[in-house]
Amino acid sequence: MKKSFFVLPLLLLLLSLTGCGPKSYHYPNYDIIKPPKICKPNRKNIQKLLDKYLNKPYIWAEEGPHAFDCSGLTYNIYGSMGVSIPRVARDQAKVGKYVAYDDLIYGDLIFFGSSNPRSKRITHVGIYLGNGWFAQASSSQRRVTYTNFADAPSFLKRMKICRRYMSEDEKHFYMTCHGNIAKMKTTTTRYTTPWKPGNKIPRRAVPR
């Protein structure tokens, strides 16, 4: 009787300890890992983060720090500066100040869809860098890269809307929502595991 009295609490303790670690990585990992704030929100830090992430692999549903999909890259960069935005591109496109293409400035987001002008569906997002350049986690190139509209004019045909989150003087943020956005549940690496170097890169950029 005394023996079982001590064994039961020990078993419960072992079960609690084994359940405390993060769940292992499984593709695709749809858990949304909120990035910790590591810097102040400004364009200089956007570039520092992009320099850090350039050529990281494209992995569907990843928001870094070792791999990204398109909206995961924008979510991570703004989140790392303490600016909370939606996770997926179609919802990111519903937040912020509308800007015309000719009025784009560094850090604005550009949203893309199909080349059909009647379609409003958002399927991709990039960060404008100036002089026709934008940063993107590209599913076709399978990495974070810089692209110029002059070299890839099809993106101009696919452009749907542009949004600004941070004012030009970097003192104000435009977080007004322009539509319904699904509630977003976030987690941390304490509970889930993101893709890491050494994990297999999926054969398909977009899972079926």
Could you explain the architecture of this structure?
Strand 4 and strand 5 (133-138) form a beta hairpin. The chain has helices at 2-18, 43-53, 70-80, 89-92, 154-158, and strands spanning 32-33, 97-98, 109-112, 124-130, 133-138, 143-148, 159-164, 186-187. The protein starts with a helix and ends in a 21-residue tail after the last strand. It is built from five helices and eight strands, in the order H-E-H-H-H-E-E-E-E-E-H-E-E. A six-stranded antiparallel β-sheet has the order 2-7-3-4-5-6. Strands 1-8 form a two-stranded parallel sheet. The chain is an alpha+beta fold. It has one domain: endopeptidase fold (from Nostoc punctiforme), CATH 3.90.1720.10. Helices cover 23% and strands 17% of the residues. The radius of gyration is 20 Å and the shape is globular.
Short description:
By secondary structure, the protein is α+β, with helices and mostly antiparallel strands. It is built from five helices and eight strands, in the order αβαααβββββαββ. The strands form two sheets. A six-stranded antiparallel β-sheet has the order 2-7-3-4-5-6. Strands 1-8 form a two-stranded parallel ribbon.
Total of helices? 5
CATH topology: endopeptidase fold (from Nostoc punctiforme)
Distance between the termini: 56 Å
Low-confidence stretches at least 5 residues in length (pLDDT < 50)?
none
Write a concise keyword list for the protein shown above.
208 residues, alpha+beta, endopeptidase fold (from Nostoc punctiforme), six-stranded antiparallel β-sheet, globular
